[in-house]
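Reminder: ligand-aware prediction takes two inputs, not one.
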Amino acid sequence: MKKTPFVNLEQIQEITKTYPTPFHLYDEKGIRENAARLYDAFSWNKGFKEYFAVKATPNPFILQILQEYGCGCDCSSLTELMMADACGFSGRDIMFSSNDTPAEEFAFARKIGATINLDDITHIDFLEQICGIPEVISCRYNPGGIFKISNDIMDNPGEAKYGFTTEQLFEGMRILRDKGVKEFGLHAFLASNTVTNEYYPLLAKVLFETAVKLHEELGIHIGFINLSGGIGIPYRPDQEPNDIYEISRGVKKVYDEILVPAGMGDVSLCTELGRYMLAPYGCLVTKAIHEKHTHKEYIGVDACAANLMRPAMYGAYHHITVLGKEDAPCDHKYDVTGSLCENNDKFAVDRMLPEIEIGDYLVIHDTGAHGYSMGYNYNGRLRSAELLLKEDGSVKMIRRAETPRDYFATFDFTGLFKH
Ligand SMILES: *Cc1c(COP(=O)(O)O)cnc(C)c1O
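Here is what comes back for the chain with pyridoxal-5'-phosphate:
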């Protein structure tokens, strides 16, 4: 499928009159339609709730858009909890799915009434000593082994640091029951960025069967089952997007087969999607500022891996559109690079693109999740602004770009940098 950006050259020419490149731009309309679709697809489950994985796009304006559809927040650190709290999420609207958790973060989560999703059996005692055991708690399950769909290996939970083993899960929930927990949640995240409609139904089957056993063996009330994140998006033009209705039907089928006959037809489902909620509805807009002809053909842009780390970190593919040249033939092979003193600072390697001239705007697709948020300050590079393209076509700045003052702020005790 051809990938088309949600903005065109004229819009970007207008936006750059006010906001210089590079910047991340988000498509409010796309975000809203997708959130509504998710809730519609899962409307058969009465308690369904999406806890947006804050780490994907930690921006209060984005969180507040999702909040309008009933989404909560999935947090994994103190500052994420603080952001959720500041945005008006509270109590059952916040899931705290962390691991290797510092004591003060458990204490803060408990204080704001977040649902704690424990990552390990030893955290039961740890939590109890810090702030006591709440009446509602969730546990993260890791069945180990290799997670396969047909013959395709999806991921390798046996190598993942997260979660309780099966034995620990039964033992842990028994201990928690005896300590007075009234309602339990069960969570697992077994594969990431899955571009298949089969992942959630397969995961649901594992979790539902486990939940029935827990309920029967321990006599506990499982209130919610959390399918977590992992629904992917088609970063490449040849990938078929997931169909959330098909996914939901697959989950409903196993729900009806496993939970309903066990008398557990009241279990609420929840998700902690990040990528699926935001990735396609954000892009990184950057300008070609250099061309270089050496052993290869290079285009140097004004963004770098500090603005988008995925290609440098995992060789991730991000589609690129040269604005105004959407229909031009892709007959030039380029490496598209940033300025970091790191040779992996390349948004694309050997990519066929239309001929690029200096001053051309490039749209790097699908950066709405795990894009800005993975940014960093290597080489003293500063993080860009985040802009929201509103439904009426206007643009709102939802985070300003960093300035040198931000970069030097952690030396504010020295008096060296006077602004
Ligand atoms: C990262 C993460 C998510 C979101 O993952 P996506 O791949 O963005 O859907 C959800 N839950 C937990 C616990 C995570 O760590």
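Residues 53, 55-56, 74, 76, 97, 189, 192-193, 228-230, 272-276, 369 surround pyridoxal-5'-phosphate (CB under 6 Å). The chain is about 30% helix and 25% strand. We will return to this case in the review session.
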